């Protein structure tokens, strides 16, 4: 069908920041296996979650997560790029904070193979406003300050059922949630954001399906 580029997404069970040794070992095993599958299938991009440091503290969580990513990059051997996806934040979360993601990426220091995926619903839930031009510019500046806008190579475009800073990961149809139409109009027409791939993860129900949301986004483009 000529779909390009192709992205795989880590399964939901691995916790790459876990402070529980048994869970950590199982998570690394799963993480490594999924990267090997990407290599076999020729999938060049792999999106991963941040994980939870429950039972430890933030610094321990960051150390564990960085160790996990380094293991993944070693397995990848430059064949698969790893993209850190931001989370909706909350207790024990690492990647709800752009500052934390920036620390992780800067410490590993390999922007060719370690990049950033921004989920709009997650970002909004963790406190990064996207509802109008000024708020989108402020959030872009946060990305630039912490990891560089060129590290952003994928957007998960989802509206949010949760309020700003609610820590809720509840996706909604484009324009029907709390980010709203204007926020997506600004983002889809921003030169630095529209240059990269967008993937929708919106609901499928009696109101809209995937095609409807894609059509809606295209109508917002000038």
Secondary structure: elements and pairs:
Blueprint: E1 7-9, H1 21-41, E2 45-48, H2 58-76, E3 81-85, H3 98-108, E4 114-119, H4 120-125, H5 133-146, E5 152-157, E6 159-160, E7 171-172, H6 180-188, H7 191-194, E8 198-200, H8 210-220
Helix pairs in contact: 1-2, 2-3, 3-5
What does this structure look like?
The protein has 222 residues and is α/β, with parallel strands linked by helices. The protein has one domain: Alpha-Beta Barrel (TIM Barrel), CATH 3.20.20.150. It is 43% helix and 14% strand. It contains 8 helices and 8 strands. It has helices at residues 21-41, 58-76, 98-108, 120-125, 133-146, 180-188, 191-194, 210-220; strands at residues 7-9, 45-48, 81-85, 114-119, 152-157, 159-160, 171-172, 198-200. The strands form 2 sheets. A 6-stranded parallel beta sheet has the order 1-2-3-4-5-8. It has a two-stranded antiparallel ribbon with strand order 6-7. Strand 2 (45-48), helix 2 (58-76) and strand 3 (81-85) form a beta-alpha-beta unit. Helix 3 (98-108) packs parallel to helix 5 (133-146).
């Amino acid at each position: 069908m000529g779909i390009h580029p192709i992205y795989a997404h880590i399964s939901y069970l691995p916790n790459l920041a876990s402070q529980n040794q048994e869970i950590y070992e199982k998570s690394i095993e799963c993480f490594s296996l999924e990267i090997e599958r990407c290599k076999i299938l020729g999938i060049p991009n792999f999106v991963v979650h941040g994980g939870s440091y429950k039972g430890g503290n933030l610094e321990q969580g960051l150390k564990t997560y960085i160790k996990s990513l380094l293991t993944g990059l070693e397995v990848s051997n430059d064949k698969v790029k790893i993209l850190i996806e931001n989370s909706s934040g909350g207790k024990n979360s690492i990647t709800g904070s752009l500052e934390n993601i920036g620390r992780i990426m800067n410490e590993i220091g390999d922007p060719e193979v370690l990049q950033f995926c921004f989920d709009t619903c997650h970002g909004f839930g963790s406190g990064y406003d996207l509802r109008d031009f000024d708020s989108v510019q402020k959030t872009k500046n946060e990305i630039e300050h912490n990891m560089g806008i060129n590290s952003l190579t994928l957007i998960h475009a989802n509206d949010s059922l949760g309020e700003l800073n609610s820590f809720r990961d509840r996706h909604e149809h484009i324009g029907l949630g709390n980010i709203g139409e204007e926020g997506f109009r600004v983002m889809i027409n921003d030169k630095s954001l529209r240059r990269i791939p967008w993937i929708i993860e919106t609901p499928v129900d009696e109101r809209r399906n995937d095609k409807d949301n894609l059509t809606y986004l295209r109508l917002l483009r000038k």
